[in-house]
Amino acid sequence: MKIDLHCHTIKAKSGDGGRDIDPTSLAETLANNQVGIAAITNHNLFDLPKYNQCVAAASAKGIDLWPGIELDIRGKSGVVGHVIVIADPAHAERFSDVCDGLIQGVHPDDFVLGWDKLANAFVGQGIDFIVMSHYRPLKGKSFKDKALPYADNQALKASFPTETPFFFEPSNLKRAGIMYAEGVDCLIGSDVKDWSKYRECSLPEIKLEVKSFNQFLLLLRKTPEALKTIMDKKTSERVEIALFDGDAELAFPIYNDVTVVFGAKGTGKTALLKKVEAHFRAKGWTDVSSYYASENNDKYKQMVTVKPSEEDFTKLGVDDASNEFASLKAWSEPAVTSFGSYISWEEYNAEKADMARFGFASASASDEPDLDATRDLIDDYKALISNAGEILSSKILEASLGTNESNELRSVVLRACLSAQDYARADFVSTYALHFESFTVKKMKSYITARTGSPTKPSGTGFSAFALSYKKARSVLNTISDSFQAKPYEEESLLGRLAEKGDVVQHRKYLINPSQATKVSYLREKVKATALKSFVTAISNASNIAKTPCAGLASRIAEINEMADRMGVASLKDCLGVTSSVSCGGDSNYEPSNGEKAMIVLAHALFDDDASIYILDEPEASMGNEFINAVIVDRINKLAKANKIVVVSTHNANIAVRTLPWQSIYREYDGGSYYTYVGNPFCDELRDIAGVKAPKAWTQVSMDTLEGGEDAFTDREIVYGKLN
Description:
It is built from 22 helices and 20 strands. The longest helix is centred in the middle third of the chain and has 50 residues, at 403-452. 42% of the residues lie in helices and 18% in strands. By secondary structure, the protein is of the alpha/beta class. The radius of gyration is 43 Å and the shape is elongated.
């Protein structure tokens, strides 16, 4: 339904032409435009008899009319502006008396009230009321004619108690949207000047069935911005769930606001929340933050238990040495030519002079070249070409250099690339020429021996290949061993804050050397601290003995490879571990109590700013009322204002009532069956979803369920009153 809080029904001032309307026409016009609530706010006049006539006509159409008046107010600066006061219709007569006492028979054209007298006139009269002042921003054009200057409006607002609903009125809904975006509390009405054109008025809508002025005040207190819902519709998601196998399906909307689930213990509230959460996740909502009081200890354990990921390895700033591990796996010790091979050749050569005709039999090959060094050189060349391409295609260089400079740079880079190419090609040719020479000689000798059964002259001593092999092994082992000395990466994150104790902080340390920490959790399941320590020691020892040739290196490397296979280690990533500890208030090894764990877990769920949906099951459990009011209620209200979906199950009256839920779901067990009711505090009604049971009053049900009944509530009220 629509709402109009600024209607004129009488030509009170000389400029009010077109505003006269009889009660019947008023009711019909409002009804034809779907207006469910309207306030009569004539200029400097409240006509109680005419108001009562209008109420009677409007009531027949199901329209609620509220008494009001639009007063000329002289601000602190002396400027006159318009201010509206709207009162609870239950106190229309008292409101009329206050208005008459202010105006004292002065003609509406001549009446002006000092700004400092308005609050005194209405405060303390036993009347609930709303104040609306025409809005003028601090700078720029006025948002409404007859608006007090900004400073005057602020002074006027400050003259009322803070609990007084005080709003500013713009000229249209578009400006209202601007004000809302700027955090200005606003309400709006038609300020109708010609009832024949009332259909052209753009009016706000209210999305809940408000049955009383007091319920409307609840809505206003829920969002100081006058409920964005007055200008914009709430979105909703229809949920269809069956709580348990064989149960009838429950269907209800979930709004982007607060939904409170309450009822006696054992009525399936937690099950309902889990089904609602499952519904959203099944629909593809990933930004769901959930909290279940019964799972606090497990959730806290999950929070502080850290399992490293492969991505975490990058934090250490070292290479994973996967190539080195592969090289170590493929390494073998080349054989050195025995002295006996030379003796056998010389003896045979002297005996068989005709061996001279086999030229290859006595040929010698050059030492096997270092192919790895050549491959590294080629990789460097490829990197050079890639980087040169990026330099030459750089837009910023092209833009910042002149044509001559750009051409010079291009020429220098190209010459460098060509020179590097020539060098790499020459090295490649010479290296592989020697390699193929050695290969050919060895193959031919092997062929001669196979065909003749005669020995051939050894191609070489094998010392070069042996030395290169040890050099490679030493390089590989040194790289792995040095990497194991990488400094651990440490980080911390705030888990929560505890009153009087301070911040609860989780500390994490990522490492690959097991000697750098205790109680380490490793990435790979087969990697254990003791075995990894032995592995690191074995690599270090092998690295040391590889400095000089020795007979034991091959066996050491074989041992290392066997240990790596047993642990499933193929790179340093596989050795990654992490430690976790919690500190608070100077205690570096802090263990929170169960209540503190609950606060920490709840805070993580409540203050997850990336979430759009919050599922909270009994957030008040193990919490004091001070924390409930100051933290839980406050946060839920802020989430609702941000149009987040909050579904909270509770036994706490502060949460159920002070969050002013857009919707309430009440679970009841009666006569062996469960029933589900849906409603809200603004309509004061809860309806059975299945339509089996009669509607219930929200206030009575919440009083009985959350407060322990009216007597208990009254007793507490009396006690607190005595304390005051």
